[in-house]
Specification:
192 residues, alpha+beta, Protein Transport Mog1p, Chain A, seven-stranded antiparallel beta sheet
Amino acid sequence: MKRLILLIIFLSTLFSYSQEFIKCKDSINYLYIKNNNYHSYLKVEGKLEKTENPKVFKLGDYILQTLLIEKNKFNKGKDNEIEIIVNYILKESEYLTSVYKSKLDLNFVPIELEKNKKAVLWFFKIPEEFKKNINEPIKAERQVFVSRLTEEFIYSIASTQFENQSFEKIKEILGELIKSVEYGKVKEEICN
């Protein structure tokens, strides 16, 4: 399990924020994230489980990670939501290329959200050389992310597709989660 979690936490050390689970009803949970005075949360239907890393959680058989990235680092000269998100993705892919020590075949899919908001689903296959050069075999296929803008941040959710998991199911889960992102409420207001 540790090896699986390590595969998707390359980014978690770069960002400082706290997150916690809030249970409101039997099957409705919220993942609440606080970064200084910024509060956001996403609605999760299903069982959430914590992992050894506080920024990584499990939803059923899927390992997920949330990321909050300051938007102002990526919107220089950009005013379009998609352009800002893609600018972030391209910078992130430079970092991930150095981690994987291989050129990544990055794919982008725009997603329409509510109220004319947009998100970008992005993914790449995990390089075979990377999988061969680690101590234990990992049957990981892809890294999958979805990113959207909120008031001050780029909000991303990441997952790893493993050999026995459906890519379509991961895309569906990430798409539903990113659509549920809301911000502004403090923790005590979420279940009301």
